[in-house]
Amino acid sequence: MEKISVIIITLNEERNIAATINAAWRVADEIIVADSGSTDQTETICKRKGVRFIVQPWLGYGPQRNAAVALAAHEYILVLDADEILSDTMIEELLALKGRGFSAKVYSFERINYYFGRFMKHGMEGPEIKARLYHRDYANWDNKLVHEDLAFDRELHVVKLKGQILHYTYRSIEEYNLKSDKYSTLSARAYYESGKEEPGIIKLIISPAFTFVNAYFFKAGFLDGWHGWIMAKLQANYVLQKYSKLKMIYRKSNEAASHSADQPGSI
Q: For a tag site, which of 87, 95, 134, 135 has the least CB within 10 Å?
């Protein structure tokens, strides 16, 4: 029987973590939770559920996961977010896979996203394929500030498994807006550090508009009813936030450089 180490990173996840752990224990041989400083009941719940709970100061999404993986006892790693629950079909598939043995180094799953009371079937937040189960010697997480990916040799054959990960993302508009503000800030900073050029007025107008059209029409978000309309509008606003913040970073950087040049003794 093959063995799996499940890795979960947390920060104030008392609402979600119990259900995530309960489902994960049906396939896991160990669960490691790497927490970056929760002030709610996350630690208490995790320890009650019998996981290995470690406190790890925040390193960034990818590095935080890699730090937890380094402590794992088994070769195959299954990474979950604290708000992701394995479906019954997924659990059955993983148990069968453990029984017959792993034939690949990387496995992927379908993840379906829950927004404001329903799972999205269309739009930019419709079902997506995520590589989450892998041999630790053949893959690791990249260092992106946000929207991190599992990095591995693209010549490796990725096997898609049956079943789904149920991703309970946002239950309210307020919750979405809080995360949107955080992620747009991280994205803008990542763009700046990678050398992405300062956006002009055309970029600030066209990119959000295209995002809405893409989400609502091209990706058929309209088939999700009012949920699809709201999500397309929110996604367009996220893009506007991201590029607006990037522009503000450039403005502050240019002002600082100009101020420095104006100081006595500057060349």
A: 95
